[in-house]
Amino acid sequence: MTHDFTGNMNRFPSATLIEVSWEVCNQLGGIYTVIRSKVPAVMRHKAGAYFMVGPYMSQQILAEIDLLEDASDAAGLAVQKMREEGIEAYYAEWLITGRPRVVLLNPASVKVEQLNVIKYLLWKDFGIETPPDNTLINQVISFAHLTTRFLELFITLAEKDVPVIGHFHEWMSGLPIIYLKKRKAPIRTVFTTHATQLGRHLAINSPQFYDHLAFFDWQSEAPKFGIKTEASIEHACARDADVFTTVSEVTARECEHLLKRKPDVIVPNGLNIERFVAGHEVQNLHATYKEEIHQFVMGHFFQSYSWDLDKTIYFFTSGRYEFKNKGFDLTLDALNRLNRVLKEERMDVTVVMFFVTKREYYSIKPEVLQSRVMMEEIRQTCQAIEKQVGRRLFYSSTMRTDHRLPDLNEFVDEYWKLRYRRTVQSWKTKKLPLVYTHKLENEEGDEILQYLYHYNLLNNPEDKVKFVYHPDFITATSPLFGMDYSQFVRGCHLGVFPSYYEPWGYTPLECIASGVPAVTSDLSGFGDYAMRHMPQPEQAGIFVIERSRRTFDWSANQLADVMYQFLKQSRRERIIQRNQVEIRSAMFDWQNLIGYYRQAYELALK
């Protein structure tokens, strides 16, 4: 059944809402997108004061905020009190849509001697052991101490008859929950886990993770992966929170077994869809950014051989480098099968598959950069010849007595003819186009490269599926693309994200918000939600691969078939599908999904 939370039904209960996250003004992963994109909906539906608390990690944050030096509300006064205690604290407006107020606390304000005492009491009072020299855990514990101190000060300064809800995201910000409960502070707490720490590690290492969920013991499994402290904190937060939530039914089952508590409310992730809406421009934007991708493909491939760009389809996948969890293994296997079928059928289409992820690398491959530079040289030479020919043709047309088109070669100087020949000749090569763009620090151990080399998927001329492995995020400052990631997405035809472990999955959601069809899986929170709330998601350009209770081979065949059927579409059919995708994306707008948060806050007050 589809839920439609609209209008005044979404109004939050009357209370002060304080949202705490490690990723407030601190972009690390998907939670940053959750926090930031949700703000306009929260500002619209809140029924009391609202602000966020996050860590002050570097001076670069100052570029994203406007400081509130003379704020006289309870939060501002509490920050001022903390400053008087020698703590580096800031109260500001975050310069994003909605301009929410934020409190930023510097974990480095907690001195080593004080931190040691805090860690001892954490073990003594709650049984949570901590390693002596883990920088991140030390920062998390320090931030928790400062956040708890701030909240206690805020309570003393705020209006006594207004209830306070503290909403904590993930283990990195949730630790104050157990302190507040022990001290019986008058704050109702909500804890959201976006992915369990143990689940992420088990999914990578356990071949039958989902089938064995009920048999894992978190206390014995966590030390095997070196995450005993993280798992202990997460378990304690889930146990002590007044309301426990997670982002999908998929993760809820995981929480029930690994954290020993069934979530009270599922809070699906959304986007501020209005920011993506292009209306009638969706096709024009696709054509514009597809042309930009064409330019990269020409520079990367055409020095070796060429094909018809009008018969080229661009697939891509992106996200954190987790070869199995993100479904990179399944995607490669399906593309391998697709390549064989396309060659057997001699189908007149070329697929270019982009793997966009973050890996440690030394530099962009010199050959890749050199090819781009030389193609630019060819472009400039052609433009110079075009200008010269155009000018001389015009003069000639005014003086000729006949109406025939003259030999245009006569209008090109020998200098430009020679330069053109030499430039093109020096650019062309018999080497195969590289399957990766950057020199990786560990090329021998990279699983994507291992697969491509093992199966000889090395951009051979006869291959119908070409590969570009780009181990860095795409940004406008990239010398290879020169475009933002969102523009790159719009220029592609299909996003491929058949994850094995994906508590939610923003990448396919960002695709459909941009009018680009996407592949997901029934083991991702997004895919599971689409199957539950959309009668035929494939009609909206959302293709859900079955991975639950299916073999790897079966799922790879299904994915290959989905991609094959997509290639058989006509240009007109793809245009219609892109329009349908963008229209249906509205159901994932925060204005519709924010009602799930209202449920959690109402439950907390009860």
Task: Give structural notes.
The protein has 3 domains: 7-272 and 593-605, Glycogen Phosphorylase B (Rossmann fold), CATH 3.40.50.2000; 274-365 and 434-582, Rossmann fold (3-Layer(aba) Sandwich), CATH 3.40.50.2000; 370-427. The protein is α/β, with parallel strands linked by helices. The two termini are 26 Å apart. It has 21 helices and 17 strands. Residues 1-7 have low confidence and may be disordered.
Provide a brief overview of the structure.
This protein is α/β, with parallel strands linked by helices and 606 residues long. It has 21 helices and 17 strands. It is globular, with a radius of gyration of 28 Å.
Please name the CATH architecture of the largest domain. 3-Layer(aba) Sandwich
Tally the beta strands. Answer: 17
Proportion of residues in β-strands: 5-15%
Q: What is the approximate shape?
A: globular
Q: How would a crystallographer describe the biggest sheet?
A: 9 strands, mixed
Ranges where pLDDT stays below 50 over 5 or more residues in a row are 1-7
Q: What is the radius of gyration?
A: 28 Å
Topology readout:
Elements: E1 16-20, H1 30-45, E2 50-55, E3 65-67, H2 74-84, E4 89-94, E5 101-105, H3 112-126, H4 135-157, E6 164-169, H5 170-174, H6 176-182, E7 188-193, H7 197-205, H8 218-221, H9 228-240, E8 243-246, H10 249-258, E9 265-266, H11 282-301, E10 312-319, H12 328-345, E11 350-357, E12 361-364, H13 366-399, H14 414-427, E13 438-440, H15 447-454, E14 465-470, H16 485-491, E15 494-496, H17 506-513, E16 518-521, H18 525-533, E17 542-545, H19 552-567, H20 571-584, H21 590-605
Parallel strand pairs: 1-2, 1-6, 2-5, 6-7, 7-8, 8-9, 10-11, 10-15, 11-14, 15-16, 16-17
Antiparallel strand pairs: 3-4, 4-5, 12-13
